[in-house]
Design a protein that fits this description.
Number of strands: 6
CATH architecture of the largest domain: Roll
Order of helices and strands: HEEHHHHEHHHEHEEHH
Radius of gyration: 33 Å
Number of helices: 11
Distance between the termini: 33 Å
Largest sheet: 4 strands, antiparallel
Length: 296
């Protein structure tokens, strides 16, 4: 739990750093409505809303209700205390800080450009999603399931004798309980339950998935011995309803559109700016990495 709070506090620092300059100006005009004040810093309702919106879904329950709100306010106060102390110590003039701010500014600008040029043009309608669903219905169809019982013995001779007894009318389930060496299924009359392709041995499946309901097979050899298989039920593959998979499809199509738009956009702007790759430096960098790795 302690680690979660540390991660969230780091996230709060990041959000605060992003909005600090604009908030310093904005809050001066809303001092009467502030939630908390730390020195000359004001925490407003808008600050609270922004931070709540930025908290990951899997951690949002930590800030629900009166207690959760107090926790968030307390963390924002801690942020401002640390912010003011850092300025007091002159860290806002530190070269590392200035470098990190420049890196963050680059990231923020790129993100804004992405939202403006790419994300805004990658909307996917429900009709597009449904069309994709219908054209790729097999991808959303659950595999066929069959249910079978079996009697497993060590030799073909024994299997053929048991099969003869079944043909004469003896009960399959009773024989399975008495004679099958698969003790797990034997106690259930040989019942293996429902399964899909890939769950049983290849030799077993090659026969079972071609059988009709109620049919009993000839002895089937596998690495376990000889099986007599009885197919008891079949569930045909059924497509997942569109309403249940719609959001996943829209997300998939949107990501695909964004990637296409991104690639085309990069292609268009690449000629506007000279790009030169220093292969010699890359080779040297790789050599250094490999050397350091070998020393560990």
């Amino acid at each position: 739990m302690k680690n979660i709070f540390l991660l969230l506090l780091c996230a709060i620092f990041l959000i605060a750093a992003c909005s600090k300059k604009s908030n310093d100006t904005a809050t001066k005009t809303h001092r009467d409505g502030y939630i908390a004040r730390v020195g000359d810093q004001f925490i407003t309702v808008n600050d609270i809303s922004e931070h709540l919106a930025a908290i990951p879904d899997n951690a949002r329950n930590l800030y629900e209700g009166k207690k959760g709100l107090r926790t968030l306010i307390d963390e924002l106060i801690k942020t401002d205390l640390l912010y003011l102390q850092a300025k007091k110590e002159g860290l806002d003039r530190n070269a590392v800080y200035i470098s990190r701010v420049e890196s963050f500014k680059k990231f923020a600008l790129v993100n804004l450009l992405f939202e403006k040029i790419i994300a805004s043009q990658a909307d996917v309608s429900e009709n597009e999603a449904r069309d994709y669903y219908e054209k790729n219905i097999k991808s959303f169809t659950l595999p066929q399931q069959i249910r079978a019982s079996h009697i497993l013995v060590k030799t073909r001779t024994e299997a053929e004798k048991i099969l003869g007894d079944i043909r004469k009318g003896k009960n399959f389930g009773i024989i399975a309980r008495q004679r099958s060496i698969d003790t797990n299924s034997a106690e259930n009359g040989g019942d293996l339950g429902f399964f899909v392709k890939g769950e049983m041995s290849p030799e077993f499946e090659a026969v079972a998935f071609r059988m009709k309901k109620g049919e009993i097979s000839q002895p089937v050899k596998s690495r376990y011995g000889y099986h007599i298989i009885k197919l008891t039920d079949i569930k045909k593959g059924k497509a997942v309803e569109f309403s249940r998979i719609k959001d996943t499809i829209i997300k998939k199509l949107k990501e695909g559109k964004q990637q296409d738009i991104f690639n085309k956009y990069i292609g268009r702007i690449r000629d506007s700016y000279p790009v030169k790759i220093n292969e010699t430096a890359i080779t040297e960098l790789l050599r250094t990495y490999q050397k350091n790795k070998s020393l560990k």
